[in-house]
Amino acid sequence: MTSQHPSSGSTPGTSTLTGGLSEKGLSAGSIGLLGATVIGISCIAPAYTLTASLGPTVAAVGTQMPGIFLVGFIPMLLVALGYRELNNAMPDAGTSFTWATRAFGPWLGWMGGWGLIVATVVVLSNLAGVAVDFFYLMLAQLLGNPSLADLTNNVVINVLTCLVFMVAACYVSYRGMETTKAVQYVLVAFQLIVLVWFSVAALLQVVEGTAFDALAFSADWFNPFLAPSFSAFAAGVSLSIFIFWGWDVTLTMNEETKNPKTTPGRAATLTVGIIFALYILVAVAALMFSGIGAGEFGLGNEEIQGNVFAALAGPVMGPFAILMSLAVLSSSAASLQSTFVGPARTMLSMGHYKAFPKRFASISPRYKSPAFATVMAGIVAWGFYAIMRVLSTDVLTDTILTLGMMICFYYGVTAFACVWYFRDSLNGPRAILLKLLAPLIGGVILLVIFATTLYDSMNPDYGSGSNIGGVGLVFILAMVLFIGGLVLMLIQRSVNPAFFQGKTLTKGSSKEHGHVE
Predict the structure, then answer these.
(1) CA 243 to CA 50: how far, in whole Å?
(2) Which residues lie closer than 8 Å to 412 by C-beta, 6 or more apart?
(3) Rounded Cα gap, residues 449 and 443, in angstroms
(4) For the whole model, what pTM was predicted?
């Protein structure tokens, strides 16, 4: 690569790269490979994700769950390879926003950044909701009072407790990457240990003959084409994409990592690999222990599918079952805090390049973190959760489905940006594979899933069944978010047109910007 990384402490218009890139005053060199990987795993939140996804995946594809996880892993890996190439050429905290702007220009670049912000704000509200549920479940288990778990159904108590979690997470993120990293080491290590413990304990019971409804291991489980139907296959893949989402947080930290051209990409690849291995281990262990029947602890039992670990922790882990509740709670809380990293740095970047109001570009002098952007992410996420908690009969289901569309949108835009940006420098097999084929195939898969989900969500029965005027709430929510983004973009264009005129960040290709291998 023939590019120069900007010097520390630059401001817009000074010490810029070709094309307009410049640093934003973040704490450079504060995160290494281990720290970035830990934060990446935290953002994915494996314990939280698995307890909510194992049951629905089995309901869709039965014993082909490991194979479906494998298929969901493929587009994530393909897109991650494209992300890594873009980061190598243009390390910038704005990631999708910055790269799409450099490839396609300001309009699609702005919407790419908006898609990332919306997705992460939606998942922040979702994570906070899960943390509230498991907090009261944990209190019920600790104090032996089952009625305490029902407090989460009280809307006022739920929303206020959510606010407490949001404020705490926002505060830790506000204090910068050093505090974030320290908190994440503890929370991530704990949930990984408990998940491996659960898996080993389940497999030992299968060996000892004490499992609930033991299934003999079969290599056919890894063949996704044995799914009962194409619709089941598609539903499983859509869910799999959600469970792998979050690894790109490692790239939004690129201006704060040691060796920003290589460390974030390596952390992203390592994060996805570790999560994939963990998911396969837990999926196989759960299948072998519980089977897919509708019995008390069977994965086909609809009553436990929404929260598999809450049901299986007791029979699998015995007196240590409360550790699983703590693991899911810590997973939600850890991800709630680490997920602030992405939207805050994207908004910081958009403010820095004058695509957002200037206030978003402010940095905390003490902590070198995106102060205003972090606080705004917390306020908007809590407000979104409070509104959804009142409107939707199942806020978690509807926000996850909306989140899936946002993920497909901004990941897809970024994947295609990789293809277009590097179109003039596809020299050799490696470049063709990593800069063209991998992101192109990954982007097409995500585009198909996005279009299918958007169409299906118009059905009033889609998701939780909440609807307005006979139109599914998920579709309405997605349209409100997209149209809201377009309106805000036009307002920003009229107030401060510099970004949209290409004065702060310029469009071009890798050859034009000097990023040629």
Answers:
(1) 8
(2) 443, 446, 447, 450
(3) 10
(4) 0.82
CA geometry: angle at 52 spanning 57 and 336, to 5°?
A: 135
DSSP string, 360-410: GG---TTT-S-HHHHHHHHHHHHHHHHHHHHH-SSHHHHHHHHHHHHHHHH
- pLDDT tens, 201-224? 999 999 999 999 889 999 999 998
Tokens of 17: 């790269």
Which class for 184: exposed (0-12), middle (13-18), buried (19 or more C-beta within 10 A)? buried
* Distance between CA atoms of residues 515 and 502, nearest Å: 19
What residue spans of 209-295 are helical by DSSP H?
230-244, 249-252, 263-290
Q: Name the nearest CA neighbour of 472 among 458, 454, 491, 484.
A: 458
**Per-residue tokens: 431:** 């470049």
Mean of the per-residue pLDDT values of the chain: 85
> How distant is the alpha carbon of residue 349 from its chain centre?
19
Distance CA 76, CA 256 (A): 24
Amino acid at 190: F
pLDDT at position 16 is 46
Alpha-carbon gap, residue 191 to 48, rounded angstroms? 9
Domains of the chain: 33-456 (1.20.1740.10)
Q: What is the pLDDT of residues 307-349, one digit of tens each?
A: 788 889 889 999 888 898 889 888 888 887 777 888 888 999 9
3-class SS string, 276-341: HHHHHHHHHHHHHHHCCCCCCCCCCCCCCCCCHHHHHHHHHHHHHCHHHHHHHHHHHHHHHHHCCH
Three-class DSSP category at 403? helix
CB contact at 8 A, 411 and 445: no
Q: Hey, what are 319's tokens? A: 């007196």
Query: Residue 424 class from Cβ within 10 Å (0-12 exposed, 13-18 middle, 19+ buried)?
Result: middle
Which residues neighbour 58 within 8 Å (Cβ) at sequence distance 6 or greater? Answer: 65, 287, 292, 299, 300, 305
What lies within 8 Å, CB to CB, of 179 at 6+ separation is: 172, 367
Burial class, 114, CB count within 10 angstroms (exposed 0-12 / middle 13-18 / buried 19+): buried
